[in-house]
Structures are given as structure tokens and as C-alpha cells.
Amino acid sequence: MRAGLLVLTGWLLILSSASCMAGDEPKYFIRLYSDICFHSESGDLLGTRIIVLRFRDGDYVYFQPAEGMPISPAATKASIADNATDFEFHIVEPNSPSVGFKGKLTDQFLTGRIEYDDGAGKKWLGDPMQLPRIDNPQDGFPNCK
Description:
By secondary structure, the protein is mainly beta. It has one domain (2-139). The chain contains one helix and nine strands. Strands 1, 2, 3, 4, 5, 6, 7, 8 and 9 form a nine-stranded antiparallel sheet that branches. The relative contact order is 0.18.
């Protein structure tokens, strides 16, 4: 599964760079943001990966957390504001807590907070996160610090 995601991510990055060569600031793009790392002592993968896709027909996101191993990614519509920095998405699946993200999108980082709604109200999970943009996903996961 990891190899399949890396191949998909590689193709997405190739398509993104080909479609964004005109102009300084691309209107449409595909970007991978991730802090997933390899924990050498336990052999676990830990962190979050978010792929942001901005196309003519709308904004989309692939969201994939990793706790021990990557969880199957969820895809949904996203919202990127006209200023191209305010970013959010919500994933609602039957019989599961809904997951949301609100934050800021830049060329280098995705910052914000993940929230979930367990049916009893929204709860913020952890501190604000800052995911760096990954340009070469084929390099694999770095070791956790």
C-alpha cells in the first residue's frame, strides 16, 4: 500500500509541476504536506500526511494519519479561500467521528488544527500542527526526532 501511495503521489507531483509552469504563483496545484516519520525503536510510522489538490473544478484533499502504520487515506472536497491561504476540509463517514481541519496553506507549510466531532460536540486534538511541504516523496520517511 505504501508503494502505491508513493507512486500516486509521484504522479500527482509530476502533473502539478507540468500544469503550474506558467506564471510565478500557480492558480492550480497539487502539494504534499507531511510530518510522517519512522520511529526506529518501534518500527512505527507516526504523523499526518495531507495532499492538497487545487483544480479548475474545485479543491480536494487526501488526509492520512499514521499511528503505527498509515491508516487508509480519506478523500473529500476542501475549501481554499480566494486569498489561497485559508484552508479547511471536513470528512464525514458513517459510524465514525467526523474529522475536520482549519488552517493556513503556504508554499512551504500547512499549519492548523485537526478537530473531530464524536456526536457529543467538537473537540480539538492536540496542539496546532505545522506540516512541511514534501517535494520528493520517493525519498521515503525521515527518522523521528
